[in-house]
Amino acid sequence: MLVALLSSLVKNCFVVCTWYLKRGINESGNVANDVETEQILSEDVPEDHPMQISSVVQNRGSIPLFWSQETSRMNLKPDIVLSKRDLIYEATRLHFENLAERYGIPIIILNLIKTKERRPRESILRAEFANAIDFINKDLPEENRLRFLHWDLHKHFQSKTANVLALLGKVATCALMLTGFFYHQVTPSMKLEGYMSSSSSEAEMSPHNSSDDDCGEYDSVKKSFPPKNVASGDYDGKPGRLQRGVLRTNCIDCLDRTNVAQYAYGWAALGQQLHALGIRDAPTIELDDPLSSSLMVLYERMGDTLAYQYGGSAAHNKESLE
């Protein structure tokens, strides 16, 4: 089995730079540090065997409001300023319309910033972000509305009893139930014909069944492959799946807290992907499983790479907070 993480700066991202120099959104609805991450699993099999592949995509980006911070290396917690009031949140609306065009619906927003502070900083953005989502959702049909979740990661880390990754894993499982993930089986003939380089038509795929009401464990696919007769070339493949919608995560600088949440999402997805490939009987992986640790190493490397790209140094708090 091969596991890969691909992270790329989204083409229309208006800037990627040192984290304290740019924040927020522009008039066209493009945000700073807009990054797409895809977690890909594939089988390492002989050429005359069908190969299963699965992937799941998530997104991170700056909070889509007009805001800024003092550009100073000396101040570790510079003031947050709402630099422009967009009374109808037009730029924010354009941003989420673009996400819907790229990924489909639902758009699930995981907002990790602080709820309460002695000196209001992040909480200023939290309130304005909530106002923006409420305003935009008023004009959308119920099935297209943005799914918005405030989840103060700092508060959860301060709790002595909370298992933060386990709690985030439950949030991630809920998101996966809404969006599903990609799965396809490539036969030897398809490999020869170059199908791996082209996308399958939607008619060949079945949507991932989901429920808005149930966020518990569930069986997403049958537990085993149907029998295959390799000698005769008779392959009875499972139906393919498509991901529809995306989880978008943000903190303040799209680094440390976002890295933790994106790992939790990848961890929850990995169990379901392995289950879909028939490698594991259950769609979950325990946190003390060696696979969970190996996946964490991949996400730490990804976080460091992104931090170097728009921060000039590795991620500061890989297991805690900004």
UniProtKB/TrEMBL annotation:
Claim: ATP-binding is one of the keywords in the record: no
Domain SAC: 18-312
Topology in membrane: Peripheral membrane protein
Cellular component GO terms held in the UniProt record: vacuolar membrane
Signal sequence interval, chain numbering: 1-17
Alphabetically ordered keywords of this record: Hydrolase, Membrane, Signal, Vacuole
Matching InterPro entries: Fig4-like, SAC_dom
Compartment list: Vacuole membrane
Catalysed reactions listed for this entry: a 1,2-diacyl-sn-glycero-3-phospho-(1D-myo-inositol-3,5-bisphosphate) + H2O = a 1,2-diacyl-sn-glycero-3-phospho-(1D-myo-inositol-3-phosphate) + phosphate
Gene Ontology biological process: phosphatidylinositol dephosphorylation
Comp. bias intervals (Low complexity): 198-209
Highest taxon of the lineage: Eukaryota
A Pfam cross-reference name: Syja_N
Region listing for Disordered, in residue ranges: 198-218
GO terms, molecular function: phosphatidylinositol-3,5-bisphosphate 5-phosphatase activity
Subunit structure: Component of the PI(3,5)P2 regulatory complex at least composed of ATG18, SAC/FIG4, FAB1 and VAC14.
Record's protein name: SAC domain-containing protein
